[in-house]
Amino acid sequence: MGKVAVAFAAAAVLVSCSVAAVMVGRRIKSRAKWRAVVEILKEMEEACRTPVGRLRQVVDAMAVEMHAGLASEGGSKLKMLLTFVHHLPNGTEKGTYYALHLGGTYFRILRVHLGGERSYLDVQDVERHPIPSHLMNSTSEVLFNFLAFSMERFIEKEGKESNSQGVKRELAFTFSFPVKHSSISSGVLIKWTKGFEISEMVGKDVAECLQGALNRRGLDIHVAALVNDTVGALSLGYYHDPDTVVAVVFGTGSNACYLERTDAIIKSQGLLTTSGSMVVNMEWGNFWSSHLPRTSYDIDLDAESSNPNDMGFEKIIAGLYLGDIVRRVILRMSQVSDIFGPTSPMLSEPYVLRTNSVSAMHEDDTPELQEVARILKDLGVSEVPLKVRKLVVKICDVVTRRAGRLAAAGIAGILKKIGRDGSGGITSGRSRSEMRMQKRTVVAVEGGLYMNYTMFREYMEEALVEILGEEVSQYVVVKAMEDGSSIGSALLVASLQS
Ligand code: ADP
Ligand code: MG
């Protein structure tokens, strides 16, 4: 070989070596980036752990806070609000009633017709629309005028043959925000949640605002009750099954109510007669305990929300937030690694990833995870390999599993408070035989998250059995109530008339 050829061959070897070195270097770098992402996932998984021991601590904390909230005003983060609902509908109600429901994402209007027997419950014309987002930070006047206008349109559609023509219509206003009631049909807004921000509304009577707006439109409609959505769900549950004593909503937000003995509502002794019972609206979204597993993503989400340091439990279990927790994890990963390509600016937009999309990705059963790919593409992240799509599914799983399991702990906490968890409650003194006489207990559950996100529901139900044990679980029935809060509120108004 001539000198030139040797030099040429040497150069060729050098080039191929350096190409190989670059390739190996890239591979090492990409492996390091993948490792960084896996590290983030592991850290987050660890911070979200909910072993049954921890869930039991949450159960105890919930029961303790319930006691504290009932003992004195401001005694707990749980407001344990009076509802003035002493009796729930029992099936004998008759007539036609309406419900207008302002939720966190949707408003609904419906009419029920009751024939005096349980089996004769006819739910008619359910209308469900997203709440126009500009209303969430408008003024109370704009909001209530809109609701009154929607009600007017609903009535207009009824037509002349409607049997309620010419008769004053009785309406339940189902309102899914914390209210301090002074009677079943009046109460002032304590604060907004779930992203609503109409500050001049706080402290105003919510039923009065709606009644005023209806009157201004000349509608002959009487706001007969102001009903928290959970109380509506409890009413429908009880109507069908009198063993229903707890209701929980998992929708945009989350909350629970239950039937309490009036003599246990210590803070209102003197105000209430001591016999009988009253439904208590827990406002459990604001529950907090140091036992709740919290990540840096939760802390940031809270700090950047419209209500920081508020509604801590809601922010880890409810539909408005699960998507945003997932988004924050993906954003973090895309910042430390290029596995998602260049960081998409959309990933920095709060609430751009909705929980509906989280469930669609989590439950994607296509072999190549095409649904995950489609949703990521909508977020400006395209062409990610299968292993990255699998990683995203895993993130959804971790966030939703934590939510479902903590939701179960919350329910078990209520059962513990009322002595239906098989342990005899947190106050001692119950005899062993009493403990063994477990009563059948129905928990009415509703809300878009629970109704539509199978994995959330399954994690919740599985954890409830884990916490209560197989034996006690047989006595605890979780019943889904589609549109329960609206229908139940109308039933509640019906029960007030009889
Ligand atoms: P609202 O909270 O207005 O009363 P819903 O009870 O219907 O309304 O709950 C709506 C919320 O439920 C949505 O904002 C979303 O967070 C959640 N949700 C609805 N559908 C799904 C779904 N398919 N998967 C996961 N979450 C869902
Ligand atoms: Mg709701």
Textual characterization of the structure:
- The chain has helices spanning 3-47, 52-71, 140-156, 206-216, 229-240, 296-304, 314-317, 319-336, 355-362, 370-378, 386-417, 432-436, 448-452, 454-468, 470-473, 484-497, and strands at residues 81-82, 94-102, 106-115, 121-130, 169-175, 179-183, 186-189, 221-227, 244-250, 254-261, 277-281, 441-446, 476-480.
- By secondary structure, it is of the alpha/beta class.
- The strands form three sheets. Strands 1-11-10-9-12-13 form a six-stranded mixed beta sheet, with helices on both faces. Strands 4-3-2-5-8 form a five-stranded mixed beta sheet, with helices on both faces. It has a two-stranded antiparallel ribbon with strand order 6-7.
- α5 (229-240) crosses α16.
- The longest helix is centred in the N-terminal third of the chain and has 45 residues, at 3-47.
- It starts with a helix and ends with a helix.
- The model is unreliable at 426-431 (pLDDT under 50).
- Magnesium ion (MG) binds at residues 103, 176, 229, 249, 251, 447, 485.
- Magnesium ion (MG) is lined by residues 103, 176, 229, 249, 251, 447, 485.
- Belongs to the hexokinase family.
- It comes from Brassica napus (Rape).
- Residues 41-236 form the Hexokinase N-terminal domain.
- Residues 246-494 form the Hexokinase C-terminal domain.
